[in-house]
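Minutes, methods subgroup
Present: GH (chair), OT, SY

1. OT presented the first of two proteins processed in the latest run. Sequence and structure tokens recorded below as shown on screen.
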Amino acid sequence: MANVLMKEFPIIVLKIRVIIVISLCVTTILFFLQPFSFGIYQHYALFPALGYGGITFICIYVFNFIFKKRALKCLSQWIVLYEIGFILSLLIFIATLNFLFTALIGATSLNAYSYLSWINITLSVGIFPTFFFFFFVQYRSKLDKYNKNTKTELESRKITIKDMASNIKLTISSNDFVYAEIRCSTLYIYFMHDNVLRERHLRATISSIEDVVCDENIVRCHRSFIINVKYVDAMEGNSNGYKLYLRCCNAVIPVSRHYTLIMRNLLDEYAVSV
């Protein structure tokens, strides 16, 4: 059980439109189906239904875009235990605000019994769809990872980088290419070989190899760097500049402002922490 809880879990930060849809579903279900004695509101059910839907939106938004994003900056990886704790905390937070809202409109009393009842109702309603989503995300993550790996293997190609001052050349698989850096008019190429990071240097420029090397995964991120995004572990920074951290070495790769949006979109596809 402990091993399962410590396994890595996909990082999911819900988009605004998804949060809006969830909130509208809550409002619609409460207004039309009126479960859990919601019928006591009778002719003024729309206001409390909108209130509970609004609370759902606020809670999910706060947890996703404030708590979770801050936690991701402090943690090296997101695991199953963190996701379960995040879900339970979110449901309890929703239950607490629902309870306070219900007391505010005079439909319940401010006491421990009423509060525990709201906790019970919220967990009973939310736990099953939430954990269905939890397992669905895991399944999709494994399926996407398998498809991505299969696609990568099928689309692997040979890259040949030539020295501009001699007949020396380097031929490697695009999957093994990690990054290239220009320093003092010398091109340093870093690549994987037998699971070990290797280095070669040639007389060439970043521009001269860009057309040969770059594809949907290997992109230019700076005037002096080309990076393979599949080796990126995290991206950190602000409007003044971003940096890429690699999982296979301690190198820190700068990202120019011109390439920031491109890198963020690419790394989102790989579920890399940004």
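2. SY then presented the second protein from the same run.
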Amino acid sequence: MKKTKILCWNINGYRSIVGQNPSKKYDTISRENKLFAFIEKEKPDIVCMQETKADLSQINEDLRQPAGYTSFYNSSKTKKGYSGVAIFTKEQPKQVIDSIGIERFDIEGRFLQADYDGFSLLNIYFPKGYADNERLDYKLEFYDAVFEYLEKLKRTQKNIIITGDYNTAHKEIDLARPNENVGTSGFIPVEREKLDVLVEKGFLDAFRLFTSDGGNYTWWSQRGRARENNVGWRIDYFFISENLKNNVKNCYLLPEIQGSDHCPLILELGK
């Protein structure tokens, strides 16, 4: 398999991070295009973003993709400024799919699939859930719909990468304070069981191929200096087909990169 570097990042607002509509939320107000500058530095072959919070019509034409990349967007059909995923890619995919075939999930703009010669890449923004709330049911049903979609995809594609914001910490090691969050959505047993199902279906957590250490997180609350104190959660992942294991060169997090309440993570393929 040829060398491929894939970047995943929940950017929590595309227009803010590219400087179109600067926000005080994560940094000082700036017109700097932090996203493009970061991409220029890292030089990934593919960029998968979640929570773009923008329809394509809301993004200035010169900010829709960096030079040298083709862009694909899938935005919420229910309301603007909500949800959304996007892919930047240097190589033109064989095909791009923006639907899992179930309208109540598709309308929220949570899914993009890009097919390449060596693999299918799924970029997914899984829903948040709230305890004792219909959104928890929606989240669990979304997981099930993705699993059903994967079963169909596996009939024609053996090499599958599923990246994105899963909005679930899988194991106790994946958050700083597991005992305090057993009843918190994102760490409720029924949510964690969905990631167990993904593993049972033959998918591997690529990051855990390289480290079993704790203290590695991808999201931090904006309250109580959580990021400064590294009180975080690992809820963003690369899950890969088991047969891709020997093609994974590295998988790592970049917690020092600012611009969102999530940090980027990178998967490197090809040995």
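Chair's summary of item 2: The chain has five helices and 14 strands.
Next meeting: continue with the remaining queue.
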